[in-house]
Amino acid sequence: MDLDEYLSRDAVGLAAMVRARDITADEIRAAATVRHHQTRDTINAVVEWYDDPTPVQAVDGPLAGVPFLRKDYGSAEAGRLVEMGSRLAHGIRAAETGVYIRRLQAAGVQILGRSAVPEFIQHGTTESRVHGATRNPLNPELSAGGSSGGSAAAVAAGVVPVAHASDCAGSIRIPAAACGLIGLKPGRRRVPWEGGGWGGIAEEFVVTRTVRDAAAFLEVLADGPMAPAETGPLRIAVSTDHWGGATVDPEVDAATRKTIDTLEGLGHRLESIPVPQDRDELNGTWPALFSRWVRQDVLAAAAATGRPIDGNIEPLTERMLEDVERLTVDDITAAQESQGRITDRLRRAMDGYDVLLTPTLGRAALPLGELGGEGASASEYFTKNDAAMPYNYLFNVAGWPAISVPAAVATTGVGIGVQLAASIGNEPTLLELARRLEASRDQAR
Q1: For residue 367, is the peptide bond before it cis, meaning its omega torsion is within 30 degrees of 0?
Q2: Domain 235-444 in CATH: superfamily?
Q3: Where are the beta strands (DSSP E) in 216-337?
Q4: Rg (Cα) of the chain, in Å, rounded?
């Protein structure tokens, strides 16, 4: 398969060629391997490229032959490494193949390797002591985002058209925005993640270059009933203020307002609403609803490897463990009560609206060296992250689906995304809106 042809096709297009016997899965894998070797030293997105990928199980499946990278965290393949970006987890292998992986393999996907993550996936940038920094292929001086940054960088660079991603506080949407991709976080428990889910705030899915790829993977991976796609005209709530109390980057604001104009041109009704969250209450849930699960992974890795935790984790992980160890049962109960209030506040703010539109990020570019687990104090870390990523965590706490859609290209060359969110069950409506924005963007080129 010619490399230019490979780079021009999305997953749905490649699978159609395999089913038609125009190409083989092996030819696709060869093209992906060439592209991996061309880009690996520049972007540092892949931590393992398999010499022995599992053979394609379904050459007539809906995703026949589609090349894919597995995020180095979460659902895994039996016997394969799952090292979670940490020295502490070095050498850990999965005991069984997850439902997520089995569904993809049954649809014909071929998994070619593992993508990079920050240590225990707790950062919005993909930088670790083990693997170094994953760089944005649109501008290698900047971050690809995180925690699914290895997957997003590989997709944006054309190594694979689709890659595994998971989202505990924006980790699908953040790198999707930075790398100019489609990043859907499905609603709570939409995609099975046995043994995962972080108590219900985390979801697994993919990052893609096209909306139709996201829809095709949702068809394969999703459980449960979904509402039919609303085609409009929709009533769309808009919140462009910075939810962390800082100032939105002017380029982000301009891209968001351009998207508002596009949606109004498509016949939708858009109205501004106040910020639908209490910032302090939401941030106050972080230790109990987020960091507590990182600690669980740390303890499990230490038990599996027999290594001491001290000296084998990064500085911020150490500080996070200290904070979590001070939690009491009452603290956890209070966070769960807050979760209910936060979800109800969002529901009331959205009464009468079909979709909520925000920027995906508060910044037009994510710098390397500022948002990871090194250097900064915990307070500095959270201040910088709150400025860059204020719009994402709410929808993890509430369990609502949310999607980042490309809106513009920053002056630095990286992507700027807008986020669309809706109540549980409305993934089809979000994908339909994303499809129409994608079509409008393509027509404008």
Answers
A1: no
A2: Amidase signature (AS) domain (3.90.1300.10)
A3: 235-238, 269-272
A4: 20
Q: What is the pTM of this model?
A: 0.98
| Residue boundaries of the structural domains of the chain | 10-221, 235-444
122-150 tens-digit pLDDT: 999 999 999 999 999 999 999 999 999 99
Domain 10-221: CATH class, spelled out: alpha beta
Catalytic residues: 71, 147, 171
Beta bridge partners of 255: none
User: Which strand ranges, in their side-by-side order, compose the sheet holding 110-115?
Assistant: 46-49, 110-115, 67-71, 162-167, 203-208, 182-185, 402-409, 415-421, 355-359, 235-238, 269-272
Q: What percent of the chain has pLDDT over 90?
A: 95
Task: Show the low-confidence residues of the chain (pLDDT under 70).
Answer: 375-376
Distance between CA atoms of 201 and 106, rounded to whole angstroms?
Answer: 27
Largest Cα–Cα distance in the chain? Answer: 61
Cβ neighbours, 10 Å, residue 200: 13
Contact of 33 with 51, CB cutoff 8 Å? no
Extended beta strands in 186-309, E state: 203-208, 235-238, 269-272
367 secondary structure, DSSP code: B
- Give the Cα-Cα-Cα angle 400, 404, 410 (nearest 5 degrees): 150
